[in-house]
Design a protein that fits this description.
The complex is a heterodimer of chains A (235) and B (299). With 235 residues, chain A is an alpha/beta fold. Chain A has one domain (3-232): Ribonuclease Z/Hydroxyacylglutathione hydrolase-like (Metallo-beta-lactamase, Chain A, 4-Layer Sandwich), CATH 3.60.15. Chain A has 8 helices and 14 strands. A 7-stranded mixed β-sheet of chain A has the order 7-8-9-10-12-13-14, with helices on one face. In chain A, strands 1-2-3-4-5-6 form a 6-stranded mixed β-sheet. In chain A, a hairpin with a 2-residue loop joins strand 1 (3-10) and strand 2 (13-19). In chain A, helix 7 (185-194) runs parallel beside helix 8. Chain B has 2 domains: 1-102, no CATH class; 104-228, no CATH class. In chain B, 46% of the residues lie in helices and 19% in strands. Chain B contains 11 helices and 8 strands. Chain B has helices spanning 3-24, 36-49, 61-64, 67-79, 104-115, 178-186, 203-206, 208-226, 233-257, 272-275, 283-293, and strands at 89-94, 97-102, 117-126, 130-136, 139-146, 157-166, 171-177, 261-262. In chain B, helix 1 (3-24) crosses helix 4 (67-79). The longest helix of chain B has 25 residues, at 233-257. Chain B is globular, with a radius of gyration of 28 Å. The termini of chain B are far apart. Classes of the chains: A alpha/beta (235), B alpha+beta (299). Chains A and B meet through strand 7, strand 8, strand 9, strand 11 and helix 6 of A and helix 9, strand 8 and helix 11 of B.
Amino acid sequence: MLNIKVLASSSKGNCYHITDGSTPLLLECGISFKEIQKGLNFKTSDIQGCLISHEHKDHCKAVSDVIKAGIDVYASQGTIGAMNVSSHRLNVIQAKKQFNIGTWTILPFQTEHDCAEPLGFLLTNQAGEKLLFATDTYYVRYKFRGLTHIMIECNYAIDILRKNVENGKVPAAMKDRLFKSHFSLANVKEFLRANDLSMVQEIYLLHLSDGNSDSDRFKREIQELTGKIVKIAGY
Amino acid sequence: MTNISIVKKDTVDIVAAKVKEFQERGELHFPANYSPENAMKSAWLILQEAKTGKNEGYKPVLEVCSKDSIANSLLDMVVQGLNPAKKQGYFIAYGKQLIFQRSYFGTMAVTKRVTAAKDIDASVIYEGDEVDYEIINGRIKNLTHKQKFGNINKEKILGAYCMITFSNDEVYTELMTMDEIRKAWSKSQMWGKDQDTERQGSTHDDFKQEMCKKTVINRACKKFMNSSDDSSLIMKHFRRSDEALTEAEVEAEISENANSEFIDVESEPIDEDSIELPEGIEQQQMTIETSQQRKPSFA
C-alpha cells in the first residue's frame, strides 16, 4: 500500500517520503537533513534512495547530508554536475531509461524547467501501484497509463498572478519566468484531462506559490474536474 | 451576415469605442497624420487574408483566434499609433491568440512619438573602418565613423550602432559587437539550440547588414524607452504587446508539446534475494550493507 508523506512543498523547500511497505524512498531533499529526520521521527536509516529532480536548492539542499547518511542519490548527469557534489553514492540516471531500487521500478522523464537537466519520475511497485511525480515543469510532454497516484506541481493561477503584477506585488520579470518554469492551474487541468484517471486514487498538488495561489480554490477546482481525492501538499 | 462579418462588427466597434473613451479622457492623442479608423481598416483587410501556421492547418486567423485576442491586438496597434499597411507591425496567430507584433519600423515610430526623437539612424561597422568615440559619464559620445566603400562586405561585419537624435541635438548611442548581435539572434525561434552563427541562406545571413541594423535599432529604442517615463497609455501598450507576445509564445509551445507522447514504466520482477531481509538479522545493520551493495540496474 503506497504511502506518501509530505515533509515540505514550496519554493522554500521540497521533500517527500514515499514507501510501498518494503522500500522507502525520498523524493527531493530540499530542506535541511535535520528537518527530514524530525519529519520522519528520526527513522531515516531504512531509506533506500533519494531521487532529485533538479539542482535548485529548494530540491537538493540536504544532498551532502543525505549522502553522508549512507543514502544513495539518483539524479541526471546535468543535475549532478550542477549540484557540485561528488560521491560514490551518486547514481546517474537518464530520461526514458528505467531502473530499480528495491521493489520500485522507476522511469525518469524529461521535464521543462530553467535548469540543467530536470527530470520527473514515474514509479511502479510490485503491488502494481503507479505513481507520477512531476514538479517544477511548466508542462509535461508525456501521457501516462494506469496511474494510481499523482503528485504534480500546481504553482500558480494566471488570474492571481496577473493581479499581483498589476498591483506591484510581483515584478513583471518574475511573471515571464514563471510562465517558462512552473505549472499553472490551467495547464495542470489540461494535463489531467489528457490522461486516463480511471485508476487514480489520489492527487497531490505540490509546490503551491506563496502569493500566486489559493489552496482552497485549487483543491476545489481539481476535485470538480477529476472527482478524485485531492490533497494539497502543505507548505 | 457571415461569421466573419459578425466578428468584425463586434471587435472593431469595441476597439473603436475604447479608443474614443481614451481620447475623451485625454489619455490618448494621435499625431495629426494618424487616423485610427484607417489603420483599423488596413488591419482588417490584412486580417481577412491572414492564415494560421502549419500546425493549425493554414486556417483563417479570424476563424481560429479568440475575439478577445483579436480586439486586444487591434487595440495595441491603435494605441501605439501604428499602421500595418506601413509594415509597422504584423498580426500573428499563436494557437488561439492573435498578437500584434511590432516591427522595428513600428518600434522606431513609437520611440519618435513618445520621446520626441528627431532621427533614428543605424550603421554597420566593417573590418577596416575607422571608428572613434569617447565614453563620458558612462555614455558613448562623439562617435565618428569613417568607411571606405571597399570595406563593405557582409562577411566582415564587426558590429553596428544606432543613434537617436533629439531636437536639442542630444544624441543617444547604442553600440553592439557582432558577438552581441548574434547572441540576440540566437534567441529567435529560427535558431537551433546550439547554433552560434547564422545558417547559410537564412534571413540573418542573406540580409545580414539590414538585420544588424534592425537589432541595434530595436535595442536602442527599447533601452531608451524603458529608461523613460512609463506612465503613459502608449508605454503601457508598448509593453503589453511585448508581454502578450511572450505569453502567446509559451502557450503555443505548451499546446504543441504537452501531453502528447505515451510513455510507460515496465514493472520488472525483482531478484527476491537482494531485498528480502533474512529473519533474525538485526535490521539496521542489514540495511546499511544492502544499500551499499545495491546499485541501480538499468533496463
